[in-house]
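Input/output pair, single chain:
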Amino acid sequence: MKYRYSLITLLALSSLNAQDVSLDAISVTATKIFKGTKEVSQSISVVDEKTIGDKNILNIQEAIENIPGVNAESSTNSPSPRLIIRGAGLKARYGVREVMVMKDGVPLTDPDSFTRFDFIDMQDVASIEVQKGPGSINAANATGGVIQLITKSVFEEDYNRIKLGFGDDGQRNLNLKLRGALGENDFTSVTFSKRKIDNEWRDNNEFDATQFSLKYGHLFEDDSSIETELSYTQSNMNIPTSMTASEFATFESTGEQHDTSAQFQNSSRDSKILALNVRYEKEVGDTTYKPRFYFNTWDHFHPVTGIINESDNNSVYGTDLEFDYNHNLFGDKASLVAGVTLKADITKDSRKYKYAHYVTLPASGWPFTPYISETLSDVKGDLAQTEDSTTTLYGAYIMETFSPLNGLTCDFSTRVDKLSFDISGNEITAYDYSSKNYITGVGLYTTDKSYTLLSSRVGATYKLTETTNMYVSIATANQAPTTSELGENESLEKSTSLNYEVGIKTRAKNISYDLAVYQNDVDDEIIQILDSNGNSIYDNAGKTQKRGLEFNGVYKLSQNMNIGGSYAFSDFKFKKFNEKVGAGLVSRDSNYLPYIPKNQYSLFAAFNMSNGFKTRVTAKSWGSYYMDNANTKKYEGFKFVTNLMVGYGYKSHNIQLNIKNMTNKYYAMEALKNVYGNESYKAGAPMSSMLTYSYLF
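Output:
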């Protein structure tokens, strides 16, 4: 049973950070071996289980929104975040791109870098690790970094739990967790979650989800183990429209958004996901083998601008065959991690439809062609397009960590992946953004394109004192375009990021902090351009340069109280970029990238009494940012959007009240301007509250 208890110990250590600042948080994924974050030669943040529970986190953006260098916002209070790490992900029209998301070592991100966050039940997550920047051996086709979700292992001794939550905006939450031993070496757990929110302050903003997970684990007599998880998610998410400048002014004065002038009022994403993964671990001498196998199948109904997407035959197959080898090098302990990856994303008979019910109006000028002014429902009309696609990724990775001198640790890593797209379809009808109506499609089409992607990093950590380490790293990685981006611009090239970083990390008795300074040079960065009708056009920028400083710290004021904060300074510019405006090109050289605030900071205070009383206050602020590539207008950002938690725990009972945006600030979580001067805004959520009761048994 040695394996079982060592695993439990490591899982417990991985949850220690801001709440127990005398001990270093444990990273279980950055180098694929257990290591304190102070020893990792890159910027990494860990969100622990207590913080997840205290903040009553139900969506991933709420967990990571205060990490410096991370821009995480949602306009729906549902799993649909705008997620950007050090500028990577800025191009995403929807969802998340350029960031690798994993759960227990299994990628949730598709080979072309798209992630479905409705996959994730945050109520089963024990901790979250965020690795920032390119070069991670975990990141295949992701230059922004890696988000690793670590769920509660079936081997970890844990209480059973029932959790109930009720709040305004029609919020309802139910979570049930059962875990038990089937025998001396067999363990199982079941998790069930159901969530619902009406969000009546906006039109078309309802969300509900039902999630189920069954885990099984077996410990063999030779101390090897196998752990499996079967999960199912059914998610129904309406997606509200953006606002014009005048409509946003109304929201700023009333806190509500109704009857917007947007054409497509019925956007949504209804999905079902069935997933299975198997993880095996066996130690043979100095080598530990860790093969992983995974499969998921999903379908969705997804009305968006102009088109209704429906797909019910999608499968993802993958494996990661990893081994760790402990050995001696330069007279000291060293470790080698290596493996191969294979993943395929197969979609058959994906379909697009016209909207069945919409209003047309005559255009104001010649030739007076009617245009769609608004949709009336999300009912499917005539078939517009069919498509089959296969996206494959295979590659290999290796990382060596060793200590050539006392107090100095070095690591070298690289991975090479081959990404291939095979797409064929028949476009019968297309939505034309310029005429705002349907036109004849291109007919039969094919796309067959491949990219070779390199990701490498060299890092070193030096022990300055017993409590403080300094690190340096140089990393590079490629980013390929996505399937949808290639559909709009087949000539897109892969981008290349080169990142230089230096930092200091301290873990002392009463204080813990991380300071990082970096420069990330990107060639051929894929960026998004908005035309006069809001259409997203993708192109390769010649070169961008991203310079930044990040600080995150916690101070233990007393045995019961921690205070802390974070700050990020982001100086992101186009070094060479000509933007298409109408029929011509306009230079944007030396302009700032849009949407990224130059200054971003947060503060928190957490108070925990021995009698069970607890409270936590967190406030975040975004400075101003440019709304367009031309840098013609700024949005002033927001200041001190504050969340409050007050709770009390007694034996097996816990009750807490969480109030988000307690000062009820009305602000934009996103403000954009296209090349023709049209502005669009998405609202941040106003004040909401939820009362939660949980019982452990």
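Residues 235 and 518 are 39 Å apart (CA to CA). The radius of gyration is 25 Å.
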